[in-house]
What we know:
Elements: E1 5-11, E2 19-21, E3 24-26, H1 32-39, E4 46-47, E5 50-52, E6 62-63, H2 67-73, E7 77-86, E8 94-98, E9 102-105
Antiparallel strand pairs: 1-5, 1-7, 2-3, 4-6, 7-8, 7-9
Amino acid sequence: xxxxxxxxxxxxxxxxxxxxxxxxxxxxxxxxxxxxxxxxxxxxxxxxxxxxxxxxxxxxxxxxxxxxxxxxxxxxxxxxxxxxxxxxxxxxxxxxxxxxxxxxxxxxxxx
Length: 111
């Protein structure tokens, strides 16, 4: 899947039943986290949530919580999945693939 557009989505309210997107079930439930990532994938808090996979099909992403919010989210589980975006010379955009689920507990990384 190298050099393919991707979009990372997140949810804090679980993974079942998930949502259907153009016939692909994404194992995330809609909630404020999901909506925020859907509406603002390039917001400065969400680094790398929308982009292009490198030639080997890899990308990295992070959530940069403001320092005054970090402790409130430590240990808080957030579920992530990504979709690959397939678009031809004309719309509509279709979602060609969805990842398996990843869950992470929020931690504080020292820099």
